[in-house]
Amino acid sequence: MEASKVEAIEWSFDALFKVKEIPSWFLELLTAFSDEQRLIGHGVFFSLFSGKWLQEQEDWLRQLEHTSTAFRFDHVTEHFGFMTGKDFHHGAPLNIPYTNATLTIGRDRLRRIQAACQCPVGLENLAFSYSLEEVKQHGAFLDELLAPVNGFIILDLHNLYCQLHNFEIPFDTLISLYPLDKVREIHISGGSWEDSLAAPPKKVRRDTHDDAVPDAVFELLENTIDLCPHLKYVVLEQLGNGLITAESKTQFQQDFLRMEAIVAEKNATRSTESIQSFLPAHPTIPAHIAEDATLYRQQLELSAILETAATYNDAVHALQTSSLAHSDWRIETWAPYMIETAMKIAQKWKK
Can you give 202-244 as a three-state secondary structure string? Predict the structure, then answer.
């Protein structure tokens, strides 16, 4: 910041919705970047695919509308998936079945977000999937989902790195399955490894945002930028609990400078102008809120299983005897180590 190297900032605005008093220095920082059209918003807690429309979502939109009046966002994004937990605002973002019902709900919610913020709206690709089949379908589903709002994608390269490792799929194969003309922003970050007890010696890559950016993710950045003609932002993410020691802080600065150098080198040889506005031609809000009672019940059931199962075997037994068995969720195809990971994520967020 002091060296004026930060050209834009991304703000997880809904993390402060319940904070009554925001420090004046932080408001000044937001205002400075907002005035220069270099402030972008990133939501975490909306729970895009909740099967039932909740009061928390209504409140979230009202807060977003208020925040978008106070600050000018160049765009606003949300996480893909639904949040585990009974109110879907205290849990972990996990995948959903790719069906007409979830497509309808997602499109409905994106229209409402766009109406609230009055700027381009996008979604971030998931780090978590239950099966290779889901991994391969994700890009095409994002493409369909974003069409009504002419939305864009945050291509999180560490999330992609998780999928590449966890499902042993080549980069060229996976990246070809994404609509790269819809990428307006790229994220890079670090994460962690976890041993799988359900499928040893498998190691699962987790998107925990608490460590340095791996060399492999920087390589993905170098290989991906030129594939995205409408790319405008590259953002380095790191949670505060990963910046405690002097060494971690120095590493974060080094990661930023390495990212900056890669972007500068790419900008020297590519056009940085985009004619794509990522705004809907005819913005509309559906008269009726899309809901699906069956999906909602299954989400509650899945959340309860993941949050309370004492062991992997307990979770599998509960899933096999639940309403998710032999359904659009296709639990029969889920990788054992990803069910185990979903349990860990859900139980960690619940705490």
Answer: CEEEECCCCCCCCHHHHHHHHHHHHHCCCCCEEEECCCHHHCC
Is residue 41 within 8 A of residue 10, CB to CB? The reply is yes
Q: What pLDDT, on the 0 to 100 scale, is given for residue 92?
A: 64
Alpha carbon of residue 272 to chain centroid: 24
333: exposed, middle or buried (C-beta count within 10 Å: 0-12, 13-18, 19+)? exposed
Please tell me which of 12-16, 72-76, 83-87 the model is most confident about, judged by mean pLDDT: 72-76
Residues 292, 122: Cα–Cα separation, whole Å = 23
Q: 35 to each of 40, 71, 72, 73, how far by Cα in Å? A: 12, 8, 7, 10
- pTM, 2 dp: 0.95
Q: 126: which DSSP letter? A: P
What domains are there in the chain, each with its CATH number?
A: 9-292 (3.20.20.150)
pLDDT band of 176, cuts 50, 70, 90:
very high
Locate tokens 């949040």: which residue?
Answer: 83
Q: Distance (Å, rounded) from C-alpha 77 to C-alpha 44?
A: 9
Rounded CA separation 122/186 (Å): 12
pLDDT at 275: 85
- Which of 233, 238, 276 minimizes the C-alpha distance to 255? 238
pLDDT digits (tens, 9 = 90+) for 249-266: 999 999 999 999 999 999
**Mean pLDDT computed over 11-27:** 89
CA–CA separation, 13 vs 40, rounded Å?
9
Contact 270, 224 (CB under 8 A): no
Q: How confident is the model at residue 121 (pLDDT cuts 50, 70, 90)?
A: very high
* Tokens at 313, concatenated: 């075997």
Q: Residue 339 is encoded by which pair of tokens?
A: 């069910």
Average pLDDT of the chain is 94
